[in-house]
């Protein structure tokens, strides 16, 4: 397939050019390079997607591979730098490059006055390069290189304003917590090669389909891959890095939280779907962890006052829904939610950035209010994003979230109840954010109000495009119950065919689907109405930081003290142990080695005194030596 290598290389070229010329190139040139390379990559991705789509229309599996070069050959281990394009990776290409381009375009306005403008665009391009490598890799090693690369870039982007200690700490936290998951991925790679003798998807996945359900090797492999996904996609217990990632510039939040890094774990499991389908125990773990993450994050989001923190915990919650979908076997539904979430979450983060830009970097919603007249485009687009994520029809989030909940209902009613409760919280905290930000009286300072203005067109144009996608994205996979033809499911069918054939979950009647859809939509509307009554009719405001709160509200506001728990149980003991080892190393080990060295040095100094160059001294030493030898012969022998 021609042009495939250039999809990956163009962002890398942009990184090199902007990286080397960050201090010499003008900002318009940097913007042109940064945005232009991603746009060109997107156009090439459209061409690749068109080829895959045409093949699927012809009834083919539509999987294309391309080997760039043979990389490692040692015994039975053969690894190539090669790419695989199929319906799954083709869609990811469009998401990464398409939304990535919109974020790049937005950044030209948002970062216009930042001193690190060139460096920022270089990091963005490098991030896109590694993400493309991750989704295009035809084997687990190439995927792992991309996996590690996006982890590195997230560290660089989250800590972009590293002069602030808390921002640098947030970047370090993200890097360290992701390393925990990465270890699981690395161990899984070793076990995959031991079990299958290859690391290529086209070798492993067909062989795995012949394994019995519940095979112990597949269980361990799938569990390790899930641990890897838990770190990258921010699930319990490795989710606390993602809200802290808000330290980075807002476009970084949109890039990491919407379409790229956090969806890498979902993509890993979707790509390896048959390994998980044949491991029911792992699937149950995924479903339970996903549901608990969705509920915990939604409950925390309901009391946050930082507009970006609300969206951050919303991302964690929505990722939990995706894992719930994967755990109940709704691979298409989970991936459908990846697509729609990329639309409305990128929209919401960029919209929040527009608000912060207008508010002179203020992020606390208690200091906002009444912004809809001053920021009309931002308001309308964020309203669309809020309706979409709340699951109100006919916007995108309704269709994708409903598909996950329907599969959860068919699999286990308790899982559906938990997912339904999470949907209630989602509608509440999102409309709470919207009403506190855009309605009521302005609560900021006079200077902030005087400088309120709509963002420039390079920032509002991406909002408009994403709002359109958030409105119509759900029509990609309209269920049969609503007269649709499940287009996305049919397109992805070859990717999940092996898992679908082994899936024993029951199917719901259209009547049951109608009831579940109606309950979900009605619940979202009720919670939106409750938020309206509380924050507009009653004009309630979130409590100040020093005010008393109820027990549940205090737990939510302080994020269940999970960070404090980790600090006390993990961080401080490790720091104490490190201090102990440091003391042992410096005082005991170094002290012993230094004592031996100093002893030898002192002995040498004493022996050197014997070499006086005086013949009389040497004769005296000889006499002493003769006496010693005679004494030894007489008294010892």
From TrEMBL:
Domain NADH-Ubiquinone oxidoreductase (complex I) chain 5 N-terminal: 71-121
Matching Gene3D superfamilies: 1.20.5.2700
Membrane topology type: Multi-pass membrane protein
UniProt entry keywords in alphabetical sequence: Membrane, Transmembrane, Transmembrane helix
Compartments where found: Endomembrane system; Membrane
UniProt keyword Amino-acid biosynthesis present: no
InterPro entries on file: NADHpl_OxRdtase_5_subgr, ND/Mrp_TM, NU5C-like, Proton_antipo_N
Domain NADH:quinone oxidoreductase/Mrp antiporter transmembrane positions: 139-425
Keyword Transmembrane helix carried by entry: yes
Segments crossing the lipid bilayer: 29-55, 91-108, 120-138, 144-162, 183-199, 219-240, 252-270, 282-303, 310-328, 334-356, 377-399, 414-436, 457-478, 514-533, 615-635
NCBIfam families registered for this protein in UniProt: NDH_I_L, PRK06590.1
Identification of the protein by name: NADH-quinone oxidoreductase subunit L
